[in-house]
Every structure is written in C-alpha cells, then in structure tokens.
C-alpha cells in the first residue's frame, strides 16, 4: 500500500501547526478583488479557506470589491465606465448602481457561500462601517478633477463588526462609506477601504487577494516574484520604478497600514486555488509579504 500521499497530507498539517498556534485568536482582514471574483469556483475555494480560518480560531473579516460587475451593470444601464487615477468616476446615477450591485448581489452572494460551507457570516453595508468625505483626483496634466460620489475613509464605526466577532460570525463588508455631511453613500476604492479598517483594528494580517502573483521585479515574468520586502525596501522599489502603475496605491496603503500597527501585509493571487491557506500556513508561502 502506498503511504506517501497520506504521509504528505500529515506533513502538511504538521507544517501548519505553528502557524495555527501563533494566529489563534488573531484578526485577519482579507480584501477580495480582481478577476479572481469572476470565477464562482475560485470564489468558493476562497470562502472555504475563510471558513477554515474561522474554525481554526482566527477572526477573519472580508472586504470585497466588485469593479467588473459594476462596470457590466453600468453598461447595461447605458452608462460608460470612466476611471481617473485608478478611481471610478461616480455620478449620482452611477452610485445607485454601485450600491445595488455591491449590496444586493455580491455581498449576499459571498455570505451565502460561507454559510453553505458550514461557516457563519453576516453581510454589513460599508455605509454602516466607513465614514467618508469626497475626494478628488489629478489628471495627466496635474490638474484637479472631480470624481463625483467617490470618497476616502475618514473614520470607522465598529459596532456591528465587533458584535459579529463576539458571536463568532465573519463580517463581509462592501466598499461604500456614509458621507459625513449628508449620510449618503460614497464609492470607496476597496483596497483603501480595507487598509483603513486594518489600520483602525491593527489586525495581525492584511491580505490582498487579486489577480497578480504579488510584487515582481518584472511584471511580465512571474518568476521574478519578490517573496518578502520591508517598508524601506518597498519605498525604494517605488522610487526606482520597479513598483509602478496600479500597484503603487496598493503598496502605499500597505506601508500606511504597517506604520499604523498592522503586523504584516500579503499580496497573493486569488486565481490560485487555496492561495490564502498556502500563503498563511506554509513555510514558503506563494505571494509577497510586506513587513515592518
């Protein structure tokens, strides 16, 4: 009888043991986004990983995006998707679509998956967690541009989320904020919303699940993946152009979170099945960790 396969399974569990011991009772914030959210099978695998974290005594929080689904819904409504500086220009008409897609489709769908897998989850509208103010962008000429109902997080309300955690329930939060002046919803970049909440909670880990393997010396070559980088090295990589484009705001938010007390930030490819478990519970990991 071939025992190699079951022995390998046992060795994987033993490898995970010190991490399970170290992280029990800690809070992880997981931001889900990118094209990994397009494939229901991959999303289900991430949700299973999150149920695993919950059962292992870790407190996961999920902040999700929904950019492609929002763009599709806007197109169906006859609205063009426009982005400036990586932010979606959001009119009064568009914010209604954003809120509907996030609150009526994506958020309850993720909650339902967790529950179907035997976990406990509750959907929380971002407007019940994030307080925001309108923000502006800068165009290619360096001129200020209006973004409409787009905001930045200026505060967090933790009541509903804390109640969920005390009850052993996973909070699943949408990237919307209540505007301080009006209480009306603002569209928030999900990466920045996740970082703001991670800073407020000083979580043990902030994990960005997207559709890239992590930080790479050459973005066209996955084999140039940078396994680990500290805050100073990350700043140097942005300064010399190694980190560029859409990764810059992600890395800046990661460094900002670390400066505020978050212990470690991870960038991993959500298209890889069980990427979350492989990054957290194996010695080698599969993405990039950003440390203090």
Sequence-ordered SSE layout with sheet pairings:
Blueprint: H1 4-23, E1 27-32, H2 40-55, E2 59-64, H3 67-76, E3 83-84, E4 87-88, H4 92-116, E5 121-124, E6 130-138, E7 144-156, H5 159-166, E8 170-173, E9 176-179, E10 185-188, H6 190-201, E11 205-210, E12 228-230, H7 231-239, H8 247-259, E13 264-269, H9 275-281, E14 288-291
Parallel strand pairs: 1-2, 1-11, 2-8, 5-8, 6-9, 7-10, 11-13, 12-14
Antiparallel strand pairs: 3-4, 6-7, 9-10, 13-14
Describe this structure in words.
The protein is 41% helix and 25% strand. The model has no long low-confidence stretch (mean pLDDT 91). The longest helix is centred in the middle third of the chain and has 25 residues, at 92-116. The chain is an alpha/beta fold and 292 residues long. It has an eight-stranded mixed β-sheet with strand order 5-8-2-1-11-13-14-12, with helices on both faces. It has a four-stranded mixed barrel with strand order 6-7-10-9. A hairpin with a 2-residue loop joins strand 3 (83-84) and strand 4 (87-88). It starts with a helix and ends with a strand. The chain is built from nine helices and 14 strands.
């Amino acid at each position: 009888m071939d025992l190699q396969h079951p022995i390998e399974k046992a060795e994987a569990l033993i490898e995970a043991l010190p991490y399970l011991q170290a992280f029990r009772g800690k809070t992880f914030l997981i931001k889900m986004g990118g094209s990994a959210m397009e494939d229901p099978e991959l999303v289900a695998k991430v949700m299973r990983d999150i149920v695993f974290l919950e059962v292992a005594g870790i407190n996961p929080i999920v902040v999700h995006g929904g950019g492609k689904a929002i763009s599709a819904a806007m197109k169906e409504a006859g609205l063009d998707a426009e982005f400036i500086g990586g932010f979606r220009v959001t009119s009064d008409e568009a914010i209604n679509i954003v809120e509907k897609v996030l609150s009526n489709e994506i958020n309850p769908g993720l909650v339902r998956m967790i529950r179907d897998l035997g976990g406990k989850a509750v959907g929380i509208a971002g407007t019940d967690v994030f307080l925001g103010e309108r923000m502006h962008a800068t165009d290619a000429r360096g001129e200020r541009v209006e973004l409409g109902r787009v905001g930045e997080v200026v505060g967090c309300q933790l009541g509903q989320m804390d109640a969920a955690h005390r009850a052993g329930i996973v909070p699943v939060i949408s990237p919307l904020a209540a505007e301080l002046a009006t209480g009306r919803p603002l569209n928030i970049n999900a990466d920045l919303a996740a970082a703001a909440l991670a800073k407020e909670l000083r979580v043990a880990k902030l994990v960005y699940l997207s559709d890239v393997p992590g930080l790479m010396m050459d973005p066209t070559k996955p084999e140039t993946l940078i396994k680990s980088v500290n805050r100073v090295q990350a700043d140097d990589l942005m300064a010399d152009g190694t980190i560029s484009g859409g990764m810059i705001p992600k890395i800046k938010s990661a460094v900002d979170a670390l400066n505020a007390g978050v212990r470690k930030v991870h960038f991993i490819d959500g298209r890889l099945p069980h990427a979350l478990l492989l990054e957290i519970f194996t010695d080698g990991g599969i993405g990039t960790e950003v440390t203090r």
